[in-house]
Design brief:
52% of the residues lie in helices and 20% in strands. By secondary structure, the chain is an alpha/beta fold. The chain has a single domain, classed as Nucleotidyltransferase, domain 5 (2-Layer Sandwich), CATH 3.30.420.10.
């Protein structure tokens, strides 16, 4: 299974592709972030995200895309912009024929760190360990995207085991 995790953000949109090998090991295929230029129009920033994500999908052919579910923040304007970025990420996935799985922030942290209120640095450290990386992934948005992909792989494995047990 190969999963593209996307961490939507107003300044950086992180991406990370994680592959589960036949032996059950996790491997980082690629990761990084689309840096959004604040001096560009919103439309231009959204188009940059769309094109970059489509390019990663075309290059690395993930099986599915996983993103962080909507959460609520104190600034409605920021939440609207985040929603626009999420919409573009979902459009990039669906335009390539991929399904999108959504995960709550606490579920992602719990799947990777074992604690739903973990700090970003803890997530970054655990992603490094789980993927056998020499250094913590940078920027932190890329680490979050990798964590989202890992969360999907772990969740899928649990659901498969449950389905087998019920058969």
């Amino acid at each position: 299974m190969r999963v593209l995790g996307i961490d939507c953000g107003g300044q950086y949109t992180g991406y990370g592709i994680v592959e589960e090998t036949a032996q059950g090991k996790l491997r980082a295929v690629c990761f990084g972030a689309v840096r959004l230029k604040t001096r560009e129009t919103l439309e231009a920033r959204l188009l940059s995200i769309f094109r970059e994500l489509q390019a990663k999908i075309d290059e690395h052919t993930p099986d599915i895309v996983a993103i962080e579910d909507v959460f609520y923040g104190p600034n409605p304007k920021s939440m609207l912009k985040l929603g626009e970025v999420r919409g573009v990420a979902m459009l990039a996935a669906s335009s390539c024929g991929l399904k999108v799985a959504e995960y709550a922030p606490r579920a992602i942290k719990s799947a990777v760190v074992g604690y739903g209120a973990a700090e970003k640095s803890q997530v970054q450290h655990m992603v490094k360990l789980l993927l056998g990386l020499p250094d913590p992934p940078e920027p932190v948005d890329a680490a979050d995207a990798l964590a989202i992909a890992i969360c999907h792989i772990h969740t899928s494995a649990t659901l498969r085991r449950q389905a087998t047990a019920q058969s």
